[in-house]
Amino acid sequence: MTYDDDLLGGRTAQELSIASPARNEPQPAADTPFQRPGAEDLSEAIPVFFIGRNKHGHWVARGADGKLGGLFWRKQAAIRFATRSAWPARCATIFPTENIELDLENQGNPLLAHIDVTRMLRIVGAATGVLLVTAVLAGLVALRAGIFLSRLNY
């Protein structure tokens, strides 16, 4: 019997990896950022809020139960939203390292709810302004050219 046979109990490494109970157990998905900690870590009676930044740099507070959430300018405002939403009980706050997005209706700062629309309108407004200035300049050039050409006929 070799050293490997002693370790593996007579099975090959490939058989062990297939039959391993760790392989058959469901692993928590990394793309589920709003998963509540297990009951052994945190009591089910304590509300849990995830607080982090979204891709635009705004603060997001979202309840693990999926009922509450909001966008905020400051971290302290997001924490205050979480504690007030859990009132009179206290709440647990989890700060994920990756960006989180609010997939619920914004119950936080109402100005941030329209931030994407505002950005789009700002881009459209800037493009419209550039086109308007270009049209005015083209009209002025055409007017000057018309005046110049009309003087040549006399």
Describe the protein in words.
The protein is α+β, with helices and mostly antiparallel strands and 154 residues long. It has one domain. Helices cover 43% and strands 12% of the residues. The protein has helices at residues 3-8, 13-19, 21-24, 75-85, 115-152; strands at 48-53, 59-63, 69-72, 92-94. The chain has a four-stranded mixed beta sheet with strand order 3-2-1-4, covered by helices on one side. Strand 1 and strand 2 (59-63) form a beta hairpin. The longest helix has 38 residues, at 115-152. It is rod-shaped and about 95 Å long. It starts with a helix and ends with a helix. The model is unreliable at 1-8 and 13-31 (pLDDT under 50).
Summarize the structure.
This protein is of the alpha+beta class and 154 residues long. The chain is 43% helix and 12% strand.
Note the main attributes of this structure.
43% helix; 4 strands; 12% strand; single chain; 154 residues; 5 helices; alpha+beta; four-stranded mixed β-sheet
Q: Percent of residues in beta strands? A: 5-15%
Number of domains: 1
Q: Whole-number radius of gyration? A: 31 Å
Helix fraction by DSSP (H/I, runs of at least 4):
40-55%
The helix count comes to 5
- The main sheet orders its strands as 3-2-1-4
How would you describe the shape? rod-shaped
The N- to C-terminal Cα distance equals 115 Å
What is the residue-averaged pLDDT?
73
Instruction: Please tally the β strands and state the result.
Output: 4
Structural class: alpha+beta
Return residue spans where pLDDT drops below 50 for at least 5 consecutive residues. Answer: 1-8, 13-31
Order of helices and strands: HHHEEEHEH
What can be said about the biggest beta sheet? 4 strands, mixed
